[in-house]
Amino acid sequence: xxTGGDVAAALVYxxxxxxxxxxxxxxxxxxxxxxKVINLAxxxxxxxxxxxxxxxxxxxxxxxxxxxxxxxxxxxxxxLAVYAVILHRLIGRVEVITLKEEMATLLAMFGLxxxxxxxxxxxxxxxxxxxxxxxxPQAGLYARLGRLELLGVSVEAVKVYVLLxxxxxxxxxxxxxxxxxxxxxxxxxxxxxxxxxxxxxxxxRVKALATALGIxxxxxxxxxxALYQSTGINPxxxxxxxxxxxxxxxxxxxxxxxxxxxxxxxxxxxxSFVYAFTGxxxxxxxxxxxxxVASLVLRPEGLFSRR
Length: 307
What we know:
By secondary structure, this protein is mostly helical. About 75% of the residues lie in helices and about 5% in strands. The protein has a single domain, classed as ABC transporter involved in vitamin B12 uptake, BtuC, CATH 1.10.3470. The relative contact order is 0.22.
């Protein structure tokens, strides 16, 4: 029988987990909404961010709480490399991205996804990852930070940190895109690259910046995943967070960052409450994706998109 305490716990953990889901999907939403590039390697970049947090904390002595920021820095550089090597040749000088360019970038990112996924498994098979990634450095972190009480529910403080950092990511991106010159240029290139060029801004640089930010946010989101969960990190997490992120972006509307965060929270709450009432995590995931199908029927442009 479900008690009031169970409902409160489902609410608290649903919001925390959902905010993390939304933050993980922010990078995908940005690239998809601005560049019209469906980043099929998103899940692998998330896994990379989780790996980087553990590497930084265990080998470089970086506080795990700062691990996501290490992932952001590495992800920004990696995003620039991905744009220079792959995307620039396909869409760099294209003023209007058509279905042809969308399919070309889709296949290119699919190839990158397979490459990274297989690379992770090759490293695992050769024993490079066994000692380092079998367990996430959580025990010491949990003990150091202790627990907090929210709505009468005892929650690990590190998970509250994940919630706060997820919110900070969304607010920071909103302010960047709406208040800075580069952010406004990113929004403009999605609407009219030709007009942007006539205003004296190079669309190629803007596209490179958007790609760097999108992949940087994905890698940073992987750091949040490593902080949130207490089990080991493995390449198969890509197959968990990639479809989940795509579902969240579709529900929120590509390019709509607040919609992405709202959709993530909704997904987290649905999973949490279904699990609380049924005890089945699989049913929670199924219910969340049923909600996605319903949202597509009711509002194909995105449940939280502006009309």
